[in-house]
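User: Quick sanity check before I run a bigger batch. Here is a single chain. Can you write out its predicted 3D structure?
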Amino acid sequence: MNRHPATGRALALAALLLAGPAGADSLPERMDAPTVRVICLSKEGNPGTGSGFVVGRGDYVVTNHHVIACTEAGGQAVVLLDAERRDTVPAQVKASDEKRDLAVLQLSRPSGRPAVGFATLATLEKHDPVTAVGFPGAADDSVGGNLSDPSHSGGLISRINPPPTNPELPRLVQTDAAINPGSSGGPLFDDAGRVVGINTLKALTAVPSLGADGRSMEFQRVPLGEGIGWAVASDEVLPFLDRLGIPYEVSRHRPGVLARLWSREPLILTLLGLFAAALTAVALAGTRHGLTLVKDGVTRAIARSRPPQARRAVLRGLTGPYAGLTMQLGGQPLAIGRDPGLVQVVLPPTAERISKRHALISYDAGRGVFRLEDCRSANGTFVGEARTALAVPPGQPRDLQPGQRFFLASPDIAFEVDLE
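Assistant: Done. Predicted structure follows.
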């Protein structure tokens, strides 16, 4: 069924309010979810601790090279997911660069955590607010502290360093957010919840002091200056992920006012959307066609208000032979293409741009996301509207959220995934 674009946007905003807490995680919660503690157990069994964050499909973690340096001498990297349940996952170093102080770990099993989204240096300006998230060692000493609950430290972008003259060194972002031993490898988020850097070091110096015996000399690291820390720019991480074939989301534009407001105050923006939806509904209800659209939008909004486990995953045809039809999705992929022997959703032979087995779509109930995969088709699979569509890399499943749309080869054959 075709809709007026303004109607769709207004009703979608109304659905957000009716959906309630289902998608209303706060910004701090969205920062906590992908942040993990990384432990490096030396060959002798001595643990070192740092921070990291989840990328890919929940099965990779980015951290600093110096956090997992013990693996070079036979040690083992481990990621702590839940301290109370003692849930740890062994990890293998898939890529590392000592000079850039970066490492990518592959987990022995999926973490079940959401992946971060990135934003590049092009989105940053001096004085932008940021939050450093991680596991500073000094915080572990607090009584009743949860070793898998990360700490937050707010601050500002103090300076964006120019590219170093040595191309082997990383570009750094200076911040006054507190970065302490143990924070290394953790994410530096902007105020839209996107990772703009990897926390790596602060200004420290070593000072001598007497040992416990009163005679021996020891050296302790103390801050050289207050509010001076650095993060490796997120731009340095993306080539690692590209070489490993790890999918990621990245923004190269500064977030607009609405995006920043949604990150900080989703309820306010939802209320504004509901108000706009109400005005649109009143205007449309004066016509028979408009009343039908309003009823359809309200029905979908009420369906989305139910808990995810009480809703069914569906694939809706938007354009092409399946326009107006709804198909139920499950854990087993549903194949789309022209060959009846290879697919369940069969497109006619006249759809020459569609491959015999073009794409797979399924629903992962455990993670609450849809999975779209292009089967190395001749003309591609794309997510979004025609003007802003992103191609799905062949053989690399992409997560879709309820309400997202995709098309095969061209917008003439488009679908939408949803929960109802």
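The domain at 33-261 is CATH 2.40.10.120 (Thrombin, subunit H).

User: Great, the batch can go ahead then.
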